[in-house]
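Forwarding the complex inputs:
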Amino acid sequence: MQNNTPNIAVVGATGLVGRTMLKVLEEQNFPFADLKLLASSRSAGSKIKAFGMDYTVEELTENSFENVDIALFSAGGSTSKKFAPAAVKSGCIVVDNSSAWRMDTEVPLVVPEVNPEDIKLHKGIIANPNCSTIQLMPVLNVLNKKYTLKRVICSTYQSISGAGQAGVDKLLGELEGNKVEGKHQIAFNTMFHAVSESQEDVTEEELKMVNETRKILHIADLPVMYTCVRLPILGGHAESVNLEFEQEIDLEEIRNLLNSSEGMEVVDDLKHEVYPTPQSVNGKDGIFAGRIRRDHSATNAIALWVVADNVRKGAATNAVQIAQKLLEI
Amino acid sequence: MQNNTPNIAVVGATGLVGRTMLKVLEEQNFPFADLKLLASSRSAGSKIKAFGMDYTVEELTENSFENVDIALFSAGGSTSKKFAPAAVKSGCIVVDNSSAWRMDTEVPLVVPEVNPEDIKLHKGIIANPNCSTIQLMPVLNVLNKKYTLKRVICSTYQSISGAGQAGVDKLLGELEGNKVEGKHQIAFNTMFHAVSESQEDVTEEELKMVNETRKILHIADLPVMYTCVRLPILGGHAESVNLEFEQEIDLEEIRNLLNSSEGMEVVDDLKHEVYPTPQSVNGKDGIFAGRIRRDHSATNAIALWVVADNVRKGAATNAVQIAQKLLEI
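Prediction (whole assembly, two chains):
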């Protein structure tokens, strides 16, 4: 990008991810000339503190993007579908956190540690992957390069913040005795995401993970199987992962590869109860791996436990990192 | 057993599992002549209501088992190690819910739907398997008979009631603002069980599941891999299971096999949000399977979700069922 102090906008600035995007932009000293906070008419006029100033939230319209260079969208799929093209028409580059554009063949789907080169192929929109996908990709990528992935099995342990502030409020409300809305209680329980439209036996979340994994890693037929579960946890996603490789593995090397990878840290000493948890990664930008061990049920196989703050690395942080890469192009 | 109205004892009668044993004995109209409730000296003298009567808890001693025909033990491993042999010496048959005797080659480890014939081999003690093992065994057994198991991968979603009433109280206390004791918070978090003594990278719970699965199914080298996770759930264990088979599978047949198996029920209509959860199985004696689908990441593979009340089928109910089988021999 020729302009390295761009005008930026955050769309959906009042939501859980939008507010975290502002925090991350500030923490990372993201350079910009002007910042615009956009949201639906309902939130327009409200004030948000960022960078030590009070910003007034403006209503999102098709004309919001004049003179905006980069817009970070986190306002839901239908809003992205409607307004991202308008932003692009104004010459703005959109980094979109919704699922609206992720599988569009013209839209790069990017985890900066994994496929930063895809950013260059953008035609105005770059998609931020699903939270549960993002945290697994750097792990799969680094190990695939070394040993060639043969099969991926993953069962997720996802926090309710994946459903935004409304989800968090619902869980806390239930714990305070509120009546359960919907078919399944969240408190003290497990639930699955909504069924996908195209496959009756798979959830939307599981289908996203399958498709996005293959697109990000550029392995169209990678054998993957996901079971995604939502839990009474406020923030942080964990994943129980079983991997098989084509080549012979070395557990110590795997540990070193993961620990030395950008944005990743190995936290793994079971004997002393040291492993990452949703609580331990709260507010952190990295991806944390623990319980790294041989899976003796197959040849060249391992099991591990991958945890990240889903609102940070799984959403806001990854989007800001994509924007940072844009400045370097 | 020649006597079909035996004198019975419940050891650890004041604990979470002990109290549930009494409930299940009553619900199942378990025939007995006399009932003795035993516990440590701390609990001796307290009253427990069962079968419409007030029973006084007696202190457990080596002489407690005179004239007792069947004793259901749920008082921890060290108590079982110490008192089960004394009970056997008195001519009593012990059904033990602790892990103390499970891997003893002289002790049958029984899930009545799976290996009832092993009961006959007892020499005084019959072991009740670990909760997370029990609920998976009938699933594995019925599918193994039809298609021959090749590999089992399972990630568990376990409630804190696996740690007894103390665990439940700890979670509820944390939710009310109590200070976190120990390294990991239970509320809004995930944690692993204690590390095993023999293997630094595996938890006790995972090792139990590996060893017990192979012993119950009588497949000494079955490739199995478990990741056991404790969650902020009060009761009910769920398991995300990936199975590979030697023979070609038929999903409809699998559904029918599971649904028509003793003690098992298929609850599986994702489109209408129908699947078993820890909440939905609360207080039930059965094993519930949902999310039954092909695992396209391997040949002849499926994924499914198995849920049961860990205090019931995972402990008390299974022990009572073993005692019922004893009466039939």
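The mean pLDDT of chain B is 97.
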